[in-house]
Design brief:
globular, 2 strands, mainly alpha, Growth Hormone, Chain: A, about 425 residues
C-alpha cells in the first residue's frame, strides 16, 4: 500500500551533531504506521465511546451523568498514565518495547470492554484504556518525530494525528450498521473488531521503528549523559512550561482544548439521538468529523511548518468554538456543518500544532518528558470537561451542556493568542 520511502540525509539543527546516520522524510512508512496507531489509540480506544454511548445506555442502562463519570474515569486513567510515563522513561531503556507493551495492553482492555456486563465493569476497563493509551500516545509520537527531518516535523505530526481522524471516520461508517442490525449488543462487536485492528497496528509500528536508525539513538557519550540528567531532573526540564515568558500560555491553551473538545465528542451523538436523528445519519455526521479531521491533519501540518507561531493555534480553536455553538440551533443541517467545522479545526489541528510548537521549543532529549507533562495537563482538562458538562446537562439539557465546549475552546484561543504575543516579544528581543 505504501512505497518504501527514500532516506533523506540528516541536517544538523540546534546544537545536534551533524554526522549521525539519517533522518526520514515526513511521508515515510514509519509515519503512516504511527498514524495507524493513533487511529487505534484515539479513534478506536478512546473517542468511539461517544459514538457508542446511545447503544451503551440502551444495553447497560444508566443516566447521562453516570456515563459522564465513566468518561471522567477514562481521563483519570489517562492522566495517571501521562504522570507515570516520565518515571518509566528514566527506568526503562527500551522505549520501543515499552510503547508496544502499552499499545497491546490498550488493545486487550478494549477487548475486555466489549465483555462488560454493567457500567461499573465498563468503568474499570475505561480507566485502564486511558492509562495504557497515555503512555502509547506519548511514546508513539516521540519515537516517530525523532526519526523525521526537523524541517518536516510539523507535516509528520499532522500525518500522525491524521490517523486519529481516520479512526473516527472508520468508526462512523462501520459502527452504525452493526449497531442497527437488530441486536442490543452490537457495540460489543464493534469494540472486538477495533481491538484486533489496534493490536495489528501496534505490531506494525514496532517492526518499522526497529528498522529505523534515529540520530538520537546514536548521540555522543556527552550528549547521552546530558539526556539522562534532563530526564532525572524532571522539574528543571519542566520549569519552562510554567513560566509566562516561555510556555505557560501554550500549556493553558492545550488544557482548555482538552476540556472543550471532549465535551463535544462525548455528548454530541447523544444529542442527535435525542433529537430523533437515525443512527445511520448520526454515523455519517461522525464520519464527516473524521473526514474533515483527516484533511486538517495534512492542511495544518503544512501551515505550522511555514508559520510556527501561536497564531496558527488561535485560528482553529476560535473556529472550533463557532462550530460548537451550532448545537444550539436544533437544526441537523447546521449541526452537521458545525461538526465538519469542528473536524477541520478543533479536533486534529490543535494537538498537531502544539506538538510541533513544543518540538521547536525544547531539545530532543527533553521532548518526551515535556510532552508527557503537557499531555497530563491536557488530560486534566478532559477530566473536568465532562464533569462540568454533565452537571449542566442534568439542569439545562443536552444542547446547553454540549455548547459549554464553545466557551472552553474560546478561552483556549485567547491563551494561544497570548502565547503568540510572547513568541513575538522574544524574537524581537533577540534582534
Amino acid at each position: 500500500m505504501f512505497k518504501r520511502s527514500q532516506i533523506v540525509p540528516k541536517q544538523p539543527f540546534e546544537g545536534q551533531p551533524g554526522n549521525h546516520q539519517h533522518y526520514l522524510p515526513a511521508s515515510s512508512l514509519l509515519t503512516w504506521l504511527a498514524a495507524s496507531s493513533f487511529a487505534a489509540l484515539l479513534g478506536f480506544a478512546r473517542l468511539s465511546y461517544g459514538l457508542l454511548l446511545p447503544a451503551l445506555r440502551a444495553d447497560l442502562g444508566g443516566s447521562y451523568s453516570i456515563y459522564g463519570v465513566l468518561s471522567t474515569i477514562n481521563f483519570v486513567g489517562y492522566l495517571l498514565g501521562t504522570l507515570t510515563t516520565p518515571v518509566l522513561l528514566v527506568r526503562v531503556q527500551n522505549r520501543s518495547a515499552l510503547n508496544t507493551s502499552a499499545m497491546l495492553a490498550t488493545s486487550v482492555t478494549l477487548l475486555a470492554s466489549a465483555l462488560s456486563l454493567n457500567v461499573w465493569q465498563l468503568g474499570t476497563w475505561r480507566f485502564l484504556i486511558g492509562f495504557f493509551s497515555a503512555t502509547a500516545t506519548v511514546l508513539t509520537m516521540t519515537l516517530t518525530l525523532e526519526c523525521i527531518l526537523p524541517s518536516e516535523r510539523g507535516k509528520a505530526s499532522g500525518l500522525v494525528w491524521l490517523g486519529g481522524a481516520l479512526g473516527i471516520l472508520l468508526s462512523g461508517l462501520i459502527a452504525p450498521p452493526i449497531i442497527g442490525a437488530g441486536t442490543s449488543s452490537g457495540w460489543r462487536v464493534v469494540w472486538v473488531v477495533m481491538a484486533l485492528l489496534s493490536a495489528a497496528s501496534a505490531i506494525g509500528f514496532h517492526i518499522s521503528r526497529r528498522r529505523a536508525d534515529p540520530p538520537l539513538a546514536k548521540l555522543p557519550n556527552q550528549t547521552e549523559r546530558t539526556a539522562t540528567r534532563s530526564q532525572q531532573h524532571i522539574w528543571l526540564t519542566l520549569r519552562p512550561m510554567f513560566q509566562p515568558r516561555r510556555l505557560l500560555f501554550l500549556v493553558l491553551s492545550y488544557f482548555c482544548f482538552g476540556g472543550g473538545y471532549i465535551i463535544y465528542f462525548t455528548f454530541f451523538i447523544s444529542l442527535l439521538a435525542q433529537q430523533g436523528v437515525p443512527a445511520q445519519n448520526a454515523g455519517f455526521v461522525w464520519a464527516a468529523i473524521g473526514f474533515t479531521g483527516a484533511i486538517s491533519g495534512w492542511l495544518w501540518g503544512n501551515f505550522i511548518d511555514r508559520w510556527p507561531t501561536g497564531y496558527m493555534l488561535t485560528a482553529p480553536l476560535a473556529l472550533g468554538a463557532l462550530g460548537s455553538l451550532t448545537v444550539l440551533t436544533g437544526n441537523l443541517l447546521w449541526e452537521a456543518i458545525g461538526a465538519a467545522l469542528i473536524g477541520l479545526t478543533a479536533f486534529i489541528a490543535p494537538p498537531l500544532i502544539v506538538t510541533a510548537l513544543l518540538k521547536r521549543a525544547v531539545s530532543d532529549a527533553e521532548y518526551a518528558t515535556n510532552f508527557s507533562a503537557l499531555t497530563a495537563l491536557f488530560a486534566i482538562g478532559q477530566i473536568l470537561g465532562p464533569l462540568v458538562a454533565g452537571q449542566v446537562i442534568e439542569r439545562s439539557g443536552l444542547a446547553a451542556g454540549t455548547a459549554i465546549s464553545a466557551l472552553v475552546l474560546a478561552f483556549g484561543a485567547i491563551f494561544a493568542y497570548l502565547y503568540a504575543v510572547v513568541q513575538r516579544q522574544l524574537q524581537a528581543a533577540k534582534l
